[in-house]
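Changelog note: in this version the structure field was regenerated for every chain. One regenerated record is shown below for reference.
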Amino acid sequence: MTALTLSTAGAATLRADAIVVGVAKGAKGPAVAPGAEAVDKAYDGKLASVLESLGATGAEGEATKLPAPSGLKVPIIIAVGLGTAPGKEEAYGAETLRRAAGVAARTLAGAKKAAFALPVEAAEDVEAVAEGALLGAYAFTAYRGTDKSATSAGAGARSGKSAKGDSGVKQPLGEVTLLGAKPRDKAHKAAVGRAIALTEEINRARDLINTPPNDLYPETFAAIATAAGKEHGVKVQITDDKALAKGGYGGLVGVGKGAEHGPRLVRLEYTHPKAAKTIALVGKGITYDSGGISLKPPGHNETMKCDMSGAAAVLAAVVSAARLGLKVNVTGWLALAENMPSGTATRPGDVLRMYSGKTVEVLNTDAEGRLVLADAITRAGEEKPDAIVDVATLTGAMVMALGNRTFGIMSNDEAFRTSVHEIAEEVGEASWPMPLPTELRKGMDSPTADIANMGERMGGGLVAGLFLQEFVAEGITWAHLDIAGPAYHEGAPYGYTPKGGTGSSVRTLVKLAERTAAGDLG
């Protein structure tokens, strides 16, 4: 993990491999952002002109390298775009700073140390830059090179002592020093502490998502959760495949019965002695989704190791709550299974009796996520939490509706859905509230069972939400986050978002826990 420190040193005296400054789009060309005064002075006040001559505009996502002038003790300056400059009484937004810091950290891969001289005043600015730098510096290198000990789930994912590993891949930026922040200020120190804890857990989620399914399956996922819980004071209980069958978890058993590796239900518990509220987080954890008997065609199964992103997010969120000492009780439920075709696999037309007692006719074995979630939601509801939030890479229909960067939010409580949406937007995670149209429920009527696992094709993401709602206990507030779009990024990295697993929804879940602890959600 990239190290991060605060420093009162001036940019002119600090020794590092590079200094990062911000540049905005001004009315008459690029404008140097606050925090870069010492660097601008070293260029005789002409840094903006130099950047403009190099083609820099200050647009978001832009990074311009230029040699440092004499008077600075670094060889390189990195100018990152901040977008349109704010007004005189305004400040740069947290997400703008987060993305710019991420761009800088990615650009500096292979460097040992860099100083970030971005505009920071409030603790929120410090936290945003710290988060962006630590998330942007992420790299998954466990399966690169010749280190045989690293090729196991989660092992050595971000390790590496040299600028380049055995395979020649650049290692992450080694150390970030934030200039302009106040090391002795309690708020600034707390902001950095929160950023480090949160980003380490987001990167843990990314590691899990990126780990190949031959190494990450229900049993090994459960073992990683156990180790994380032991380290951070989270209680972990594992229900294995035999106990699931005995306990009547028909959804988990039905999905996992075709695989060599049996399913698991992992319960995580973080409690605080002064907590007044309890929230339950439920994560879909299909460690590989072939589609089962309803086999996915070529082109649709190559990235299906990411179908456990919801469970990874829940694990990261619960551990984050523990590390931050939030005054709220949080339980996490990881519904883990592999969905594979075999002679023992569930067939289209089979009927499963779920943990709730309801029967489900399986019309499509590739609609398996809702089956494991249904059991976990029912089990979570038995403990009568104040709210349940499930997270899942559930439907391609949601990707069709909202694209690759935005997750959908459904709920049985409109005010709660609005709160979750506002929280997501606040922490920089794109989301959109979605309805649960009652007329779509009829499409899941079954002549054989209480309900079918499929309904109308149009509005498939909403149909999935309606199915899950059937398993929410009466009187419990519930929300469903379909993160199928943003959970796994197949394109080029941008901002602080890498190629591969992203850790989508972790920040939303943690902020939700913080708001619940503060009593802001009723």
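Spot check on this record: Residues 186-210 form the longest helix (25 residues). The chain has a mean pLDDT of 95.
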